[in-house]
Amino acid sequence: MSELVNNFTMTLSNYVSKEMVIFIISMIPILELRGGLIAASLLKVSIIKAIPICIIGNIIPIPFILLFIKKIFEWMRKVRLFEPIVRALENKAMGKSEKIQNYEFLGLMLFVGIPLPGTGAWTGSLIAALLDIDFKKSIIAELCGIAMATIIMSILSYGLLGAIIN
Question: Fewer CB within 10 Å, N or C, the chain?
Answer without folding.
Answer: C
